Amino acid sequence: MIINISDLFLSFIGGIMIGVACSIHYITKGRITGISGIYYGVITFNWDEFYWKLSILCSLVFSTGLMYQIFGDESIMASSSLAFNEIRQITSLSYTIAGISGLLIGCGAKLCNGCTTGHGFCGIARISMRSFVAFGLFILFGVLSCFITMSEHKEDGEEKYNYNHVSIIMIGLSLVLLSACLLGAYVNKEQFIDTIVAIPVGLLLGVGVVFSGMIKRTTVLSFLSLQQWNPQFLFAVLGAIVVCYFGFRLLNKPLFDVEFQYPPTKKVTNILLVGASLFGFGWGMTGICPLVGLALFPQFTWQVGLMYLGSVSMGMRIAQCYLNKYQKVDDQVLEFNSNNYIIKNDNEQNDRF
């Protein structure tokens, strides 16, 4: 077991920041902050929610980029570990592993309707049975996957670029896109408040991811590893859940909306079990969830920025195609049962006469 008290303290503080971000989003707009759903809305150009969703992602990238400029290869506290992984620890990830991991995570997140933020932080804080089951499967299959693929984790990769310059470029790009989102939301009045709220949510998520150590894939892999277990990630989860638990119960209705928005079902379904298992297995291969994959843009690598996130996008689209087909079959069954019910009622009524 590896324990660094300073790292545990920072993880808990980072978790609190993530919890505050999720609570702000919930209190103001009544939304669960699920990064996988937000990411899917952006890549599919869902214009009804596009500007505020892209604003969260841009604010997240801006925040982690700024943190990288401040800390870079240094520690946040004197006795803590480095704030970011060295670039070699990210580029050591093989393209094959990154692609398979992203595909499984994309499919899994879409099938189980959530990821580490939606289920792990917000869902557990809401005392949702679906989220307890999903997050438990994330960890279970993450541990299994981490054990199986441990031999594929290389020690060092390559560092081809000056990442101080890369992070500055990502900061500038995120500001340009954020300005475009604000302009678009101003024109489209319905999304303006949502976009304004999204900015502090994304900024806090970015700072929280860095402080908690989740930005380092080695933090998650060491938590999922049975050989050198490190509880740092657990403290981040606890910090976020504690804040969300109380934050979600402050108001009876959101400040800028009519009612709170909850997932469409509370049932633990087979699709949830399959999706959470796929997500967990993919997560254990790389130690990167959608939140972290997006937060790593200031440390842009082809393995994460292109292969991993591209595969996540592909996995989500594949899963959505399946869900669309499954939903059509489900609707047909419901319609068939409904027709039978009507016929039965008619027959019963005729028998009475």
Fold and architecture overview:
This is Sulphur transport domain-containing protein. The chain crosses the membrane at residues 7-27, 50-71, 132-151, 163-185, 192-213, 233-251, 271-294, 300-319. Keywords: Cell inner membrane, Cell membrane, Membrane, Transmembrane, Transmembrane helix, Transport. With 353 residues, the chain is an all-alpha fold. The protein has one domain (5-338). It is 72% helix and 0% strand. The chain has 14 helices and no strands. The relative contact order is 0.23.
Give a short overview.
With 353 residues, the chain is mostly helical. It contains 14 helices and no strands. Keywords: Cell inner membrane, Cell membrane, Membrane, Transmembrane, Transmembrane helix, Transport.
Q: Supply the number of structural domains.
A: 1
Discrete helix count:
14
Distance between the termini: 77 Å
N-to-C series of helices and strands: HHHHHHHHHHHHHH
* Tally of DSSP β-strands: 0
The largest β sheet comes out as: none
Mean pLDDT across residues:
88
Unreliable runs, pLDDT <50, ≥5 residues? 329-353
> What percent of residues adopt helix (DSSP H or I)?
over 70%
Computed CA radius of gyration, to the nearest angstrom: 21 Å
Structural classification: mainly alpha
- Oligomerization: single chain
**How much of the residues is beta strand, in percent?**
under 5%
Shape: globular
Pfam family, one: DUF6691
GO cellular component, one term: plasma membrane
Transmembrane segments: 7-27, 50-71, 132-151, 163-185, 192-213, 233-251, 271-294, 300-319
Main location: membrane
